[in-house]
Give the backbone structure.
Amino acid sequence: MPDLSHRRADFPILHQQVGGHPLIYLDSAASSQKPRQVIDALVRYYERDNANVHRGLHELSNRATEQFEAVRAKVARFIGAASADEVIFTRGTTEGVNLVAQVWASHFLRPGDVIVSTGMEHHSNLVPWQLAAERCGAVVKYVPVLEDGTLDLAALRALLEEGSVKLLTCVHVSNSLGTINPVAQICAWARALGITTLVDGAQAVGHMPVDVQAIGCDFYVFSGHKICAPTGIGVLYGRAEVLANMPPWHGGGEMIDSVTLEGSTYKQAPARFEAGTPDIAGVIGLGAAIDYLEGIGIEVIHAHGQELIQATLQKLQTVPGLRVLGPPPPVQRGSLAAFSLACAHPHDLVEYANTKGLALRGGHHCTQPLMRRFGVVGTSRASFYLYNTHAEADRLVEVLHQAVKFFS
Ligand SMILES: Cc1ncc(COP(=O)(O)O)c(C=O)c1O
C-alpha cells in the first residue's frame, strides 16, 4: 500500500484531540480536510493579488485574472476536458446539477419526455430533476438498485430503449454504497440513442482518475470541498456542442456581449453561465488543491483508498450484528463504508464514536429513497481520504466492538 502517512503533517486540523482522544476524521465523503498548501494559497491570494477578475486593467486585477483562468485550464486537464471553455465554475455539485436541470431541461424537455435517473442518487441529483419534470411536464423514471448495491443494468438498458428518453443521469460513485457505476458503458448506451447524459462525480473526482471524454458524458459535476479545496467552489463540465445550444442561466455582469434597454446579447460558454463576481479565492484554492493531489498522484491516492477500504470491509465482518451496504469485497468501490448495527440507531452510534474521538456521519446521507430500498432508517458511514491510515481503520473497528457491548 502506498504510504501516505507523512502527508498527515500537511493537514493542521488533524492534529488535535476530541474528547481526550486523538481526532480520527472519517467524514471526508461529506467534506475533506484542507492541506496547508491550500490554506497558504488562499492567504497568499488575499495578501498579494486580491482584485476582481476580467474587468480591470491594473496589475492586481491582471494577476487575479491570470490565476483564475489558469485554474480553468488546470481543471480541464485534470478531468480530461477538450477545452477550458467546457469548464464552468459553480458553487458545487448541487449548483451544477441545478444549472443543467433548469437551463438545459427548460429548453429541451417537452411534455411526455422521460428523464432516466437511478435509485441511488444523492438528493442533489434527484430533486432538481423532479422539479424540472414538474415544470416541463416530463416524467422521471428510476433504475432499480440490486441487493448487492449495483445498478440493474438490464433494467437501465430497457428504460433507455423505451423511447421518449431525453436525459440520463447517474452518480459515478455512490456516497451511501460506495458503488462505482460503469459510467462509460452507460453513457455509450445513451449516446447511441441520442440521449443527453449527466454524471454526478462528487465522490469520484480526487479519489480516482476521471476523464470526461473517456466517459463520454455531456455533463459532469463535482465539488471542490470534497477534494481538499475550499467550500463554495465546484465545477460543471459541459461538452462544447451541448453548451453552445444552451441559453444563459443567471443574468448579470460578465455574461453579456452587449446590453441595451431593449435587450441583451450573451457571451459564449463559460462566461455565459458565470454571471457576477465569481468565487475567485475559491477557484485559486481549487487550483492549489489540484496541484496538491497531482503532487501525490491520483493513481496513488486511488490505490491508497482501495487498500484501506478493502482491509476495513474485511475487519468490519468481525463486528457482531453489523451490516454493510454496498458491493461486498473484493469488488472495487469508493473508499467509504456505510453500515448499520442491529443494537444501535445510527445517530446514537455516531455520538458514541464521537466520545472516542471518531468523526463519522450518521443518517440518510441525502439518499432517502436508497435507505428505504434497503429497509433502514439510515446508516453510519466511515469515509476515508489520503490522510487516513490503517491504524485509524483498526481503531474504528475496535470502537465498533466496544459500541456493541455498550448498546447491548
Ligand atoms: C454523490 C453526491 N452528489 C452530490 C453531493 C452534493 O454535493 P454538494 O453539497 O457539495 O453540492 C454529494 C455530497 O455529499 C454527494 O456525495
The first helix runs from residue 36 to 49.
